[in-house]
Amino acid sequence: MSSTTQVRRSGRRWRGSIVLGAVTVAALVSACSGAASGPNGGSGDAAAAPAADAKLTLTVYSKFTDREYNVVTAGLNKLKAKFPNIEIKHEGQQDDDKITQSIRGGNPPDVAISFFTDNLGAWCSTGSFQDLKPYIDRDKIDLNQIPDAVRSYTEYQGKRCAMPLLADVYGFYYNKDMFAAKGITSPPKTTSELFEATKKLTEFNPDGSIKVAGFLPSMPFYANMAQYWAPNFGATYIGPDGQSHLADSPEWKAMFDFQKQLVDFYGGHAKVEQFKAGLGEEYSADHGFQRGKLAMMIDGEYRTAFIKDQAPELKFGTAAPPVLDSKPDRYGGAFTTGTIIAIPKGAKNPGAAWELIKQVTLDTSTLVDLSNGLKNVPSTKAALTDPKLEVTPEFKTFLDLYNGGKLMPNPSTPIGDAHLKAVNDFAEKWQAGNVPDMIAGLKQVDAQINDELAQKRAGG
Question: Which range is the signal sequence, renumbered to this chain (predicted)?
Fold first, then answer.
């Protein structure tokens, strides 16, 4: 469900951090100078729930399309069981830019759904998304039914301005037939094991070009994003002092060393790029893994649904992502993010909007139906264990990762996804050989991120 940065869902959803970047952050920062008072602004008392027979239309923006759009629309319409006269106008293909523009223009939807958590800090801190605490307190919502990591990526500095609408967990996929052909009996658990498996599984054409890649180092590409790899290396973005310390981190150094090791194995950046150019789009049936061009990859749980739909003959397995050899305790952990849902500043029907949000984020039956249709991880503990949840062995891997207590989300920052974009931009230059000194390059990234953080804190 919910992956390009914003990236997941670029094709489908998120691969946007890299697309939105500083322009979006600037728009978010200027959208509101603060939360207005009253139920339509973002502070004060919760707006009253509509009467049971109320007739109104709730407009919902999301980026869902095609099959997923239909699944989500059905879930939204479950509100009609309680409010039969409320109509849901679900407008798909609405990205974060369009949500922000609607808020700035004074004509927002009643409910905004984003594939990405990257911009949550900016939305919360500017009041672009309303504070949900008055509603949660009034309705005595127990947020402990949502795992800690998921609660953390739907709030900013103690302010809850969004709820989780299913979660994404990024695990490891491998081609079972290719493993069997090369005598590999189990998925790698460490980066050294991953590199050895890559060497065995990779096939070259007579001219030296890549025919089949064991594991692709290209970043950003598909679900190869710095933030998706980072938990496997124990790498973090922001230190306890609120500053970026990438250059001081042995974990980030190990991650980029590993990336370069893979690039060098394939014969250099040019050969990797040549191979990558022949792969299909991320959410098309011609995805490289689905067409036997990639033997292993990192991706979200939603890929299981795409494989079932687009490549049902593919024999694949899933596992926890391999971790840095010196971080064995990280095995069984993973990166998590997810779709978020909120009431924008200026929503016309905030009370009804909250009732819809409750329906799709806290009602077990609705969450299970959405999870079964989208193949995302349900975001409450009750839905996670519901007997109606459809669980294949491949999907169970992600439920286990989600419930394993080792998830790592992105930090919410007031600069939106700017820190993610900066690191992914560095990774792209590094793999191309355009950064002669890794540490010096990372120091420049730190300076860029810290400068943006300082400007934001100073009111810039």
Answer: 1-31
